[in-house]
Amino acid sequence: MRLLQVNFTVDQIRAIMDKKSNIRNMSVIAHVDHGKSTLTDSLVSKAGIIASARAGETRFTDTRKDEQERCITIKSTAISMYYELTENDMAFIKQCKDGSGFLINLIDSPGHVDFSSEVTAALRVTDGALVVVDCVSGVCVQTETVLRQAIAERIKPVLMMNKMDRALLELQLAPEELYQTFQRIVENVNVIISTYGEDENGPMGNIMIDPVIGTVGFGSGLHGWAFTLKQFAEMYVAKFAAKGEGQLSPSERCKKVEDMMKKLWAQREKTGLSSERVYSGASVDLATVTAPRCEIQREAFELHRFPSFLYSRTILMMGRYVEPIEDVPCGNIVGLVGVDQFLVKTGTITTFEHAHNMRVMKFSVSPVVRVAVEAKNPADLPKLVEGLKRLAKSDPMVQCIIEESGEHIIAGAGELHLEICLKDLEEDHACIPLKKSDPVVSYRETVSAESDQMCLSKSPNKHNRLYMKARPFPDGLAEDIDKGDVTSRQELKTRARYLADKYEWEVTEARKIWCFGPDGTGPNLLMDVTKGVQYLNEIKDSVVAGFQWATKEGVLCEENLRAVRFDVHDVTLHTDAIHRGGGQIIPTARRVLYACQITAEPRLMEPVYLVEIQCPEQVVGGIYGVLNRKRGHVFEESQVMGTPMFIVKAFLPVNESFGFTADLRSNPGGQAFPQCVFDHWQILQGDPQDPASKPFQIVAETRKRKGLKEGIPALDNFLDKL
């Protein structure tokens, strides 16, 4: 492969941007420390952007100082590179092409689980994913997470087995052992793809990886060499078909990473698929219809087309540098300067007045760890508020919340994520000294049985009555809602049949789901099981509003509800519409929902991490001791073939995870390396209404922190008598 050297210019990149069939937008995704940034360095070096002598050490896409210090990637970073292929390689590309020059828009994403939201954001704007796996460590927990994210975003993966130099030099594996290692990794990746992907008849077709078809590469990012079976076959033929001087020279032995790009999807083929996953709302929306046949000559961003606001400029992102560029055709990745002032978190920029928003990203992790912040100097409060707004825009996952008590809360995916967010807030966004609380965990409220009585609440004017009950979800339904298998947007009969077949619900009842909550998508349901009630539809919106309110702030400590089904059994309404308005019904609905929760054996749910720990055999016993002290339990233990390393998998409550890494490294002699990823919610043993239980203490602490009255409200506050 011939690569353009350092003398290429932005003008040359701009020229190739018009060749839509020669653009590849790709993400590099992997488990932490599997070599993404080093591999990207090698690619950047071959593109002539950095000196080849410094490739692998520069970490060109790690643009922040703390990324360089910690040697991990924290933010996704984009870079554009120009590649030119030989005629022999061009014949291998089956897709439409225009010349031998290709523009690769590459995004290097983080591998640490706390920054998974950055991976989701990178996948949303790209068309293909290069999945990097350390061939010594194999497929790890975060490899599965990022692959699952890629498949959810309908991104076609190709595999790069990195660090072959370690397998050859450190482990000194025999050829057969090396082959078995490669085969096992390919099988593990394909198991993940088949588990989370669609069948071959789905929109993406067959996305299983196979070295024979060129979707698997082997190499070393640190040393800048790689090959696919195609290159290996060519080298084999060249070596054994030639004699004497015709044998391969040393310079020809190291083929560069190239077929990875050839197997990524072209933008032209991807847009039709993207429209279905990216846009929400009616499928006949003009934006959705026009996306697959985007006008090639039309520029994606023309400044004069946006009368409501103006960008100050468009930029091309080049790792740690940016280059100004006048215009950018569709199909490319571009930075917009000046648009942030109009965004709260994410947004859709369009020229079509009635377009639907692009679908909000669904993350594989949840912001379950919280910390309270306040300015050391009260006069700096406006700067803190402005800094929190900027922080919320700069990170796709972080949540900045203001409690009713006036407390400012930052919620993140884990300890490291919060640490980085607080550093950014203090040094970049607010630029003021801060006081920070200890991290606390988000909980969920639920019920463990059906309400022991029919709950009645009367409206303030006493003319309307609501009769309801609560019951817990069957196992697995809340997870199905989280995954999107059951949603409010599904066709009514399809959803009812799914619930009837899998959870044995009555089909007639399953068709009467009023809404999901909180926020219209959460894992709680409001259902109508009434028979022949007058005026019911007139109060539906008011009851739904009360349901959204109650599920967002539960009765125990105003945490979100989870896995609760509320049934509307009967209503008695005033015949005059003015006496059954929202002002009467909404607070009544909230009261009766709280009564249902209290009478259905309320419980607290805590978030749980899946922990994957790599360690030598001699320290496994010490790991068990640390996990037992922190209420964790091991469910799998296996040896990495060909190495003395063991992988221990365990569940660990998030509340017990603070200081877990330090504990682990101090006890087994610093030889254990954990990765924690949010896995599920589990019910905390004990009754929150029993003063001797742990849930009671957590509820009391949470209520105190939020400035609520001491103690769970009594049932009499919500339950009325006939």
Keywords:
722 residues, alpha+beta, Rossmann fold, Alpha-Beta Plaits, five-stranded antiparallel sheet, 23 helices, Small_GTP-bd
Write the layout of secondary structure elements.
Blueprint: E1 2-3, H1 10-16, E2 23-30, H2 36-46, H3 65-70, E3 77-84, H4 87-90, E4 101-108, H5 116-124, E5 128-134, H6 141-152, E6 156-162, H7 164-169, H8 175-196, E7 216-220, E8 225-227, H9 229-241, H10 250-253, H11 259-262, H12 267-278, H13 286-290, E9 313-318, E10 321-325, E11 335-337, E12 369-375, H14 381-394, E13 399-402, E14 408-412, H15 415-429, E15 434-436, E16 440-441, E17 444-447, E18 455-458, E19 465-472, H16 477-483, H17 492-503, H18 507-510, E20 513-517, E21 524-528, H19 536-552, E22 564-572, H20 582-598, E23 602-616, H21 620-629, E24 633-639, E25 645-653, H22 660-666, E26 673-683, H23 694-705
Helix pairs in contact: 5-6, 6-8, 14-15, 19-20
Radius of gyration: 28 Å
At the fourth level of CATH, the homologous superfamily of the largest domain is P-loop containing nucleotide triphosphate hydrolases
The total of helices stands at 23
Structural class: alpha+beta
Number of strands: 26
Spatial arrangement of strands, main beta sheet: 1-3-4-2-5-6-7-8
CATH-defined fold name of the largest domain: Rossmann fold
Second-tier CATH architecture of the largest domain: 3-Layer(aba) Sandwich
Q: What is the count of structural domains?
A: 4
pLDDT averaged residue by residue? 79
Pfam families: EFG_C, EFG_III, EFG_IV, GTP_EFTU
Protein name: Elongation factor 2-like
InterPro entries: EFG_II, EFG_III/V, EFG_V-like, G_TR_CS, P-loop_NTPase, Ribosomal_Su5_D2-typ_SF, Ribsml_uS5_D2-typ_fold_subgr, Small_GTP-bd
Domain Tr-type G: 21-251
